[in-house]
Amino acid sequence: MTQKQVVRACVGVLFLFMGSSFLRFLTLNIFIEPLHIHNAFTRIVFFDRPTLETDIIPVNVDWTTVYPFTTAGDTITNQSSKMK
C-alpha cells in the first residue's frame, strides 16, 4: 500500500468514528430526551447502554379516578337489541 492509500484508510476510519459519535449525540438529544422516543432504532444506536430504558420515570395513574366505571358492563351498553 502506498502512503496515499494509508492516509485514505485512516481518514475513512476517522469519519466512521465521527459519524457514529454524531449519530449517538443526535439520537440522544433529539429522539430520546426531548421526545421520549424509545424504539428499535434507539436500542440499536445505544446497544451498549442497558440503562436507557430505566432512565424513564414511570408515572403512576389511578385509572379508577380517571375512568370511574365499576364493571365492564357499565362501559358497554347492550347494542345488539337496539340494532334489530
Note poorly predicted spans.
none
User: Which structural class should the secondary elements be placed in?
Assistant: mainly alpha
Radius of gyration, Cα only, in angstroms?
A: 26 Å
> In percent terms, what proportion of residues is strand?
under 5%
Count of alpha and pi helical runs? 5
Count of the domains? 1
Q: Give me the count of strands.
A: 0
Q: What is the averaged pLDDT score?
A: 80
Give the topology string: H per helix, E per strand. Answer: HHHHH
Q: Quick one: overall form?
A: rod-shaped
- The amount of helix comes to 55-70%
The span between the termini is: 84 Å
Main β sheet profile? none
Structure write-up:
This protein is mainly alpha-helical and 84 residues long. The chain has one domain. It is built from 5 helices and no strands. The protein is rod-shaped and about 80 Å long. The mean pLDDT is 80.
Question: Main traits of this protein?
Answer:
84 residues, mainly alpha, 5 helices
Topology:
Blueprint: H1 3-32, H2 40-45, H3 63-66, H4 72-75, H5 80-83
Q: What is the compact description of this entry?
A:
This protein has 84 residues and is mainly alpha-helical. The chain has helices spanning 3-32, 40-45, 63-66, 72-75, 80-83.
